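Pasting as-is:
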Amino acid sequence: MPRRARPASVDTRWVDGATWRLADEIRYIQRRAAEYDSRVVTIGPLLLFSTETGDAWVLDPADRLAMPVAREGHRVAVQMAETDTNFVIGWTGQYRIDGDAFVYAENKSGKIRAMLGYPTRQIAQQSHAYAAAWKWIRSLPAVMGQLLPRRQRSRAARAGRRLHP
């Protein structure tokens, strides 16, 4: 009897913004990949996922950036740094979802790979939701400025101040 693929489990966890560490989340998704366990995790503006083939990735859905963190159950070297308040990721390429295929274009070599067997439906759903949410969050200062009374906006503009929520 052919083995049926299980849908990826989507992890939803609330974490305190002051206590989560990107390096810990990457290690978590690498462990899931080493166990060939398909997971999709969203945290902040990022989406991390592992596959039943042992691969794992970190994605930035808003900008369609990607970085592999595991391949065939083995960890891949990751370029990232973080402080208590910020993080920087050395993105290695860009991605897109094309039906059932996860398509990755590597920046350095220009190679394009299409992988099947990834939880593309869950990735697309989570990517769309997070990209929309983060786009909305980034627009808040402008929206809040429009909601303030005109007189208050004028006074702030004359004083050379930017309005923030």
